[in-house]
Structures are given as structure tokens and as C-alpha cells.
Write a structure and sequence with these properties.
Number of domains: 3
Oligomer: single chain
Largest sheet: 10 strands, antiparallel
Number of strands: 21
Number of helices: 13
Shape: globular
Radius of gyration: 26 Å
Distance between the termini: 36 Å
Helix content: 25-40%
Structural class: alpha+beta
């Protein structure tokens, strides 16, 4: 049993954001551009000095359902996760919305977000004005995006990053702030982001009718293309010729082979801006948070940044999720960046482009002034709703701006390297399902006889057979190696005496009654099989699921009760 407990601790330690009706667009004057030319009327809506006033009214039950909806990491990576984009768990609701005094009585609204930005109190929101009432527009817009800024408590990073990309000559969304109320409850400041849709492409490209794809943990590789989410009409299969070039072209021929598919010089600027702003959750480092637009005029792809709320973070580096010790001046996890960095004739191009943009584009005084402008603008609302603590995060943004030139220049002078291989098949296979309950006290973790320190139930499903294990014991306490609060549930299989253990770890700061996502972000866990005869333990799989803590704290002898349900997963194979 001691060997089992020791193994579990090692594994856990390793794992451990009043008009009565819609106002139609104005009739164009006689000398207006052709009908198929897009005229942008939304400039005032995205004016940097304007805080959009938003009041949403919907059935209280619908609002409660919307805000509680969530996405689990299991839904993203279990099964054949490369066969489709990450499925959305968010459903549509009817609502009324008033925007700067203009009311729309029936619009579609749903929650948005991937994993880190989900919030049951202040959810990010997507509004479709014309889904229920056709041809409804506000200043020419059909879709509105309000981000809760959960991953950016400074509120500054998204707008700051998009502006930096645009100032570098790239296509990027416009951005300002919104003051949002739902059913009379003041939710405070949101980030109002220009939706990337057909209106966006019409505004930013000579021919905006091309195919648009959103990349979420997606890459331009054969077998990965189906993960791209098509916006409007299109087929990710059109990306296959580009993927083939990236997979087959020699280093010597790479630039020539890429030329029909992408403007490499423009992409170098995009890539360099991800590095300069430290967009570690973008394409180059995480194959995430970006769009690709296929221009029908040239047939070439153009990258568009998205979700840059993790930029401008002091201390953050590239490499693994949340890395603090990784590369600083290069990120090359996507196949396009990987090929360009490792080809001798193109490696120097990205390093030179970083230096050029640092010298000619990165202006600390202007960036700091923009931070001060935004902070001053939203302070009266943000302070009134949530207090003044958020200003400390603004200081972090200022620290990043002040130190970035020296930090990045030093890393460039040292000669950046990227040693990580391209990601292998990322999907997980389910090998077992576990669910049960537990009741124990805090401080019993590591007890020699866990069947005497708590009770519960444990059902195990493997190979299509479900077994209720008995007896069942439980322990809880702080793991000395990881510092996490850990709950362990033990159950014995009568047929062979094997003891199965479900072990779940949660940061002590977040160990209180609530529903906890057991995966990689909120908490983590594993399922283990201990053979008493050989005194050997094997890991059945990592656990993906949920832990409902009904009672619990880290106080000595505190009562810990709850339930859990999840799968034991192992690395899949294509």
C-alpha cells in the first residue's frame, strides 16, 4: 500500500473573459460605391474612447442556464478529436438588447469561450442580431462579441494587442470596451471585440467573399484540417495543397513552394508580432486562437489574430502551457513556423523581422500612454463594480512593456533555439469510466489503511462491464510534493482483490464547495490499479471529468464530502 500511495503522489505532482425597434442601415446616396462594395458604418461603435452601453433582458431561467453552460477538456480531446472542430456546448436563447439607446426586441444570444475564459457569473457573450429578425443590423453589424476578460484581469491586453498588430500593417479586429448589464445586474466592463465574419472580411479585403476558417488547436497538416471551424461557406479541404507543400517541400525549395499559397513576408510580420506581444496562446506557440482567410483574388492565405488576452504578461515564455522557463525569442510549434525556423535560408528571416519591428514599431511611450488612456477610461465603472484590485494587473502590463525590448533583444543575441518536435496525435482514448461518492476528513491523506478513514461508493466500468467495488474508503489532505489538496477514493474488486484508486488534486486556494473540472486547468486526477499480491500499481489513465465538492476546506479535520464522475484516458493513436 505504501508503494501505491507513493506512486500516486508522483503522478499527481507531475500533472499538477430607447428606440422601439431596430434602425435599418441608411439608404446609400446616389454616388455610393457599387452594391457589392462594403461600406463601414461601425467606426463610432469601435471608437477607442467610447464605452458601449449594453443592456440585455432575457428570461431569468434562460440566463441561469446560459451562464452555467460549460465546456470540458474531455469534450475537446477525447475520441477522434482531429475529425471535427471542438464541439460547442452552448445553446441559443432569445433576448432583448439595447445598445447605446437603440433597442432590438428579439436577438439570439449564447455563451462563448474555450476553457480558460469560461465563467458562470460573468460569461462572455455572442449576440446575433439578425438570426430571429432577418436583415437586422446595428451600424452595419450583424454579430457582436463581448468578452469577459477573465484571463486578462487588467482588461488592457486584448485591445492593446490588436492595435499592435494593426499598427504593424496586419489585418486584426477593432476593439474597445462595453458596460454590460443583464436583467438589471451590473456585470461591469467587457471587452467589445469586432467579430471576424463576412462583414469583417468585406471591410478588410478587396474581395471579402473568400473562405474563412477559425483555428482552435488546429494546424495546417494532413489529418488535422478537419479541426478548422468554417465560418460561413467553405471546406477545410481547400487547405490541403498548402499542407502538402509544408509536409513535402525541401528546405532549399521551401520559399518557392510556399509562394503560391501565402505571402511569406507578411506572415513573418504576423509571426514576429505574436512573439513581440508574447501571444503564447496563438498559432506559433500553441496552434490556437487565429483565423486563416483564403483570398479568392490571389488564392493565398492570410492569418488573422484572435483571442490575445494572454499577451503582455511579464514572466511568460513560449513552450508548454503557462511556461515561465521556455524560449523567449522564438515560438515554432505550428508546422508553418516550424518549417520556416528550421530551414537555413528562412531561419534568419524571422529573427531579423523581430529586430526590425522592435526598432521601428515597438514604441514603449505610445504603448504606455495607451494603457493609461484605457485604464482612466474604464476606472469609474470597473472600480464601482469590482473594487480597485484590478489595477495591480495593469501594473503588470506596464512592466511587460517596459522590459520587453531588453528581454527580447538579449534572447535574440543569445541565438534562439526551438527543440520541440511537432505535436503528435493529440487525442485521448477512453479505457475506463469511474463514478462515486466520498466522505472523509482533511488530513487523512497517506493513511496506512484508507478503508478506516472514510467511506463512499465507487463504480468502475471497463471493457463494457460495470462493477460496484467494495469495500470503499477515502482520504483527503495536502500532498507534500505538489502542495495540492488531494482526495483519494479506494475500492476493492472482489474477483481478484485488486484495489482501484481515484485520485484528484485541486490547488488549495480553490478547494471549497463547488463543481471542479478535473482535467488540466481547474484540477487533475488519475485512476490506478493496485495488485496486492505483487504490491505493484499501474496507472489505468489520466482522469477527465468533474468533482463536486459539497463540503470541504483545508482546515484540520474538516469534513470533506462529495461525488465525482469521469473517464480514465490514455494517449490515443490515429
Amino acid at each position: 500500500m505504501r508503494r501505491l500511495l507513493g506512486m500516486i503522489m508522483v503522478v499527481l505532482a507531475a500533472a499538477c473573459g430607447d428606440d422601439a425597434g431596430a434602425i435599418p442601415d441608411a439608404t446609400p446616396p446616389a454616388d455610393a460605391p457599387p452594391v457589392d462594395a462594403y461600406v463601414d458604418h461601425a467606426g463610432p461603435f469601435f471608437d477607442p474612447d467610447h464605452i458601449v452601453d449594453v443592456a440585455i433582458t432575457m428570461a431569468p431561467g434562460d440566463w441561469d442556464t446560459l451562464r452555467q453552460q460549460t465546456r470540458t477538456i474531455a469534450s475537446v480531446i477525447e475520441g477522434d478529436c482531429l475529425s471535427r472542430p471542438p464541439p460547442s456546448p452552448f445553446t441559443d436563447f432569445h433576448a432583448q438588447i439595447t445598445i447605446d439607446g437603440t433597442s432590438f426586441p428579439d436577438v439570439l444570444i449564447h455563451k462563448k469561450g474555450f476553457i480558460g475564459s469560461l465563467d458562470p457569473v460573468k460569461p462572455s457573450l455572442k449576440v446575433d442580431l439578425d438570426d430571429y429578425v432577418k436583415d437586422t443590423r446595428y451600424l452595419g453589424l450583424e454579430k457582436l462579441t463581448f468578452n469577459n476578460s477573465r484571463q486578462d484581469p487588467s482588461y488592457m491586453r486584448t485591445c492593446l494587442a490588436y492595435k499592435a498588430f494593426r499598427d504593424a500593417g496586419l489585418v486584426a479586429p477593432r476593439c474597445n470596451f462595453a458596460h454590460v448589464r443583464v436583467n438589471g445586474t451590473d456585470l461591469g466592463i467587457y471587452v467589445n471585440v469586432e467579430s471576424v465574419d463576412k462583414k469583417f472580411t468585406a471591410k478588410n479585403f478587396a474581395d471579402g467573399s473568400g473562405e474563412l476558417f477559425e483555428g482552435t488547436l488546429s494546424d495546417l497538416r494532413t489529418g488535422w484540417l478537419a479541426t478548422y471551424d468554417v465560418k460561413g461557406e467553405g471546406d477545410p479541404a481547400v487547405l490541403q495543397p498548402f499542407a502538402t507543400v509544408l509536409e513535402t517541400a525541401s528546405d532549399a525549395n521551401l520559399l518557392t513552394a510556399l509562394a503560391p499559397h501565402i505571402e511569406v513576408d507578411k506572415f513573418l510580420t504576423y509571426w514576429a508580432m505574436e512573439i513581440i506581444t508574447n501571444h503564447w496562446d496563438g498559432y506559433a506557440n500553441n496552434r490556437n486562437n487565429y483565423f486563416v482567410y483564403k483570398d479568392p483574388a490571389s488564392g493565398k492565405l492570410e492569418f488573422i489574430p484572435w483571442g490575445p488576452d494572454a499577451t503582455f504578461q511579464p514572466g511568460a515564455t513560449f513552450g508548454g502551457l503557462g511556461a515561465q522557463q521556455g524560449p523567449i525569442a522564438i515560438a515554432a510549434a505550428g508546422i508553418l513556423t516550424n518549417r520556416l525556423f528550421h530551414a537555413p535560408q528562412t531561419k534568419q528571416l524571422i529573427l531579423d523581422r523581430e529586430r526590425q519591428l522592435l526598432a521601428n514599431q515597438f514604441d514603449e511611450a505610445k504603448l504606455l500612454a495607451e494603457v493609461t488612456r484605457m485604464e482612466t477610461l474604464i476606472t469609474p465603472i470597473a472600480d464601482a463594480v469590482q473594487g480597485t484590485g484590478w489595477h495591480a494587473n495593469v501594473t503588470g502590463v506596464r512592466t511587460f512593456i517596459t522590459n520587453r525590448r531588453q528581454r527580447l533583444s538579449t534572447a535574440l543575441d543569445a541565438g534562439p533555439t526551438w527543440t520541440q518536435p511537432l505535436a503528435s496525435y493529440p487525442c485521448l482514448d477512453v479505457v475506463a469510466h469511474v463514478e462515486g461518492t466520498f466522505s472523509t476528513t482533511y488530513g487523512t491523506l497517506g493513511a496506512q489503511n484508507p478503508f478506516a478513514t472514510g467511506t463512499g461508493t465507487l463504480n468502475l466500468t471497463m471493457a463494457g462491464q460495470t462493477i460496484a467495488l467494495a469495500p470503499v474508503g477515502a482520504t483527503a489532505g495536502t500532498d507534500a510534493s505538489s502542495g495540492a489538496a488531494v482526495i483519494q477514493v479506494f475500492g476493492q474488486r472482489a474477483s481478484d482483490g485488486h484495489i482501484f484508486v481515484v485520485s484528484m488534486g485541486v490547488p488549495t486556494s480553490r478547494f471549497f464547495p463547488r463543481v471542479i473540472d478535473i482535467g488540466f486547468f481547474d484540477g487533475n486526477g488519475g485512476v490506478f490499479d493496485y495488485n496486492p499480491t505483487t504490491m505493484m500499481a499501474t496507472q489505468v489513465g489520466f482522469m477527465l471529468g468533474s468533482l463536486t465538492l459539497t463540503q470541504g476546506s483545508t482546515g484540520a479535520n474538516a469534513t470533506v464530502t462529495g461525488s465525482f464522475s469521469g473517464n480514465a484516458d490514455v494517449q490515443g493513436s490515429p
